[in-house]
Structure formats: C-alpha cells, structure tokens
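in:
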C-alpha cells in the first residue's frame, strides 16, 4: 500500500525552502488540507510557491516575507499555526494570524513567550497563549532562551528552524520535551538545507548561517502508515509500505515494533516495512510518549487483544485536534469495550466490539483509527468521515482497496 507523503516533513520542508537562498524542489509532498494551508500561508506572505501534481517549487527569501503586511488563516494546521509566526518574526512587517475554532483551542504559549524573550513584538488578540495573534516583525537578534516543550515538540522545532535567520544565532535549553523523534527529523532536515545544529545534552546551539536551497524528496507518512499496518495485524493479512523503513527520519515507524510485541511478524528493511498478522493480538503495557500520534491506532485494535492494553506517558495527546485520550475512551465505550483513563494513560480491556457510530471530533486520526476497528466489526460508522482530508483525503478508498486486495489473495 502506498502512503501519502509525511505531513511533518512536508511542513518543515516548506519552511526551510521559504527560508533558503535559491529555489527548492519538493518531490512527492503530502497534498492535504494541512499542507495546502501551509503553502497558501506562504503565498499570502509573498513567497512564490508553484504546486504541481508530483512536485512543489518554492523560491526562498532569507530576508523574510515579500509582503509588508498580511493576514494568514492557518486552518486546522498546527505546523502552519506554530511555524509561520516564527518565520515572519525574522523578517520585517506586520502579520496577523488566525485559525479554525479547533486550532484556536490548541496552545502556543511556550513558543510565543520564547519569541517575546528574544525581543519579538507579538500580541495575542484574544486569550493569552492562543490564536489569533499579531507579529510586528523587525528581525530577531538571537541569544539564549529556555523552553518548555513538554506539550509539543513543535515549539522547539519552530525555534530551531528560525535560528539560522537570526543575527546572532540561538542557544535553546529545553526543560521538558515530548515526541523527541520529531526534533530529530528537524535537525536532519536542517542539515540537508546546509545548517548543522550542535547539541550538548538539553541545549541546542543554532548558528546564524544561511540555508541553501535543495532538491528534496518527501518520504511517506509514518503515522498514516500505522493504519494499514494495524489492519494487517488485526485481520491476519500482510501489508508492505514502500519508502518507509529503518532508514526513515520518522520515529512513528516504531509503531511496527509495538505490533511485533503483540504477536505480528514485522520485517523492517531500510526502505520498506512489512507487517503480517495471524489474527491474534497479545495484550501489553507500552510507553508511547515518543510516538503519541499512533496512540489512537493502538487503542482502536486493543479490544481484540487477549489481555489488557495499557498506553502510558501520553498526556500531550490531550491537546491535539481533540482530547484523544477522552475521544478514544468515549468511542470504545460506545463499542461496548471496558476502558479507563488517567491524566496520561489509557487502559483497554478485551471485549468484542459492537456496531456503533464513532464520534470523530473533527480529528483525522480518530476517524482513520476506528475505521480499522470496522474491518472486524460490521456496522461501525463515522459521524465525520471527511475529516481525514487533513492528512489523507483518499483514505477511505485506499482502505477499501486494501481490503479488496486481501479478499482476492
């Protein structure tokens, strides 16, 4: 099964291409609501972005946006809402940002506090620490800051990405960090665009060094790959995801290892991952702090395990598109599955799910995860099937095609 490009990598690549000197070509980018929203945000700011069916071309402006004033609507995109204010702060002008009601509920505070400490004139127009906001940009001098990235690694990524655009560079000391593999993605991609970040323990030194444009191919999205991989483990079939393997930048490829602990056979090559199920799953306890976007996937197949499935250290899933711990618990209870939750954990006990309507809460990952449950539970429906457009507009057809292929094999 071929998986669309990584959302995380596409967003970072768009930022890096906009900040680099020269013209960057991004091949096989994710085309979805989130990434199109990011690209439109760049266009609104005056960057030249040409979007073709197989590649996007971006003309970089290290000096910052061409527009002296602009209003950017970030839609539901957290990367758009968090990365673009940092990008414009290094330029000159007045820039207004707003987002959907869903994104307005997601925090920005740790990032905007850090930008203010660096001298950026930034105002939250409504609730402090949330969209909408206005940046009155006059460049960023740089310096030393301390950052709490315990709610989202995107706060650290935004500062790392903008660091080379500052006059003096940045020294960033992190007091807490969630989803650390996403930061490794950022550092590897900055390296591809010509900037090497030095790390000493919890401190990152970002030099004031210009990015260089490049030709960059986006790998498949590892979080999205979790759905067909879980489907194979659940139904006793086999699926291979090309372009995603042990050499991947993305930590979420490790979800395959969780399925392996549950009894599936996992083959991980540098450029492909294969999961083969036997129709049976073992219960387990697992810490998913670093791969928390795959928590709903595991929760959705957990009722079919032979013992309890407990997922720990995932508080940050409560501040995603929805409170994913509560959303998973709510939907599992709708399916008749015993479940309990705490501040940062969920425990699911085995029980045959019954037919029910899934409350998606506008969250693409809830919709896609519980669609996998439906492979073994007839009668499951989704109240918002279209919310998958955020990262995988063709998901429902792709899952149907995968199931049809298994039926013919």
């Amino acid at each position: 099964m071929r998986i669309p490009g990584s959302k995380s990598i596409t967003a970072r690549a768009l930022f890096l291409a906009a900040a680099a000197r020269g013209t960057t070509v991004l091949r096989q980018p994710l085309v979805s609501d989130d990434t199109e929203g990011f690209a439109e945000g760049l266009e609104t700011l005056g960057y030249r972005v040409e979007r073709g069916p197989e590649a996007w071309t971006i003309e970089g402006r290290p000096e910052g946006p061409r527009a002296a004033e602009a209003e950017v609507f970030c839609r539901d995109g957290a990367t758009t809402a968090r990365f673009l204010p940092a990008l414009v702060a290094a330029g000159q002008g007045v820039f207004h940002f707003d987002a959907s009601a869903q994104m307005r509920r997601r925090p920005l505070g740790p990032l905007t506090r850090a930008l203010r400490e660096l001298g950026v004139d930034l105002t939250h127009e409504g609730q402090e620490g949330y969209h909408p906001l206005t940046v009155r940009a006059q460049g960023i001098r740089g310096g030393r800051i301390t950052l709490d990235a315990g709610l989202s690694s995107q706060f650290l990524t935004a500062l790392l990405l903008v660091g080379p655009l500052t006059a003096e560079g940045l020294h960033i000391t992190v007091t807490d960090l969630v989803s650390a593999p996403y930061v490794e993605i950022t550092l590897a991609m900055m390296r591809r665009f010509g900037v090497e970040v030095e790390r000493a323990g919890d401190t990152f030194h970002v030099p004031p060094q210009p990015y260089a444009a490049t030709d960059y191919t986006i790998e498949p999205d590892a979080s999205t790959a979790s759905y067909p991989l879980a489907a194979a483990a659940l139904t006793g079939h086999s699926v291979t995801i090309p372009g995603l393997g042990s050499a991947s930048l993305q930590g979420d490829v490790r979800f395959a290892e969780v399925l392996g602990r549950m009894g599936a056979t996992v083959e991980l090559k540098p450029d492909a991952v294969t999961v083969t199920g036997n129709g049976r799953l073992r219960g387990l306890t697992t810490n998913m702090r670093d791969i928390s976007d795959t928590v709903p996937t595991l929760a959705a197949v957990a009722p079919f395990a032979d013992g309890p499935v407990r997922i720990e250290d995932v508080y940050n899933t409560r501040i995603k598109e929805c409170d994913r711990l509560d959303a998973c618990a709510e939907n599992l209870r709708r399916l008749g599955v015993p479940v309990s939750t705490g501040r940062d954990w969920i425990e699911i006990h085995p029980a045959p799910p019954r037919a029910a309507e899934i409350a998606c809460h506008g969250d693409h990952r809830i919709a896609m995860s519980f669609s996998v449950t439906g492979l073994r539970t007839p009668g499951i429906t989704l109240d918002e099937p279209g919310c998958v457009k955020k990262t995988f507009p063709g998901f429902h057809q792709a899952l149907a095609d995968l199931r049809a292929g298994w039926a013919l094999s």
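note: The first helix runs from residue 7 to 19.
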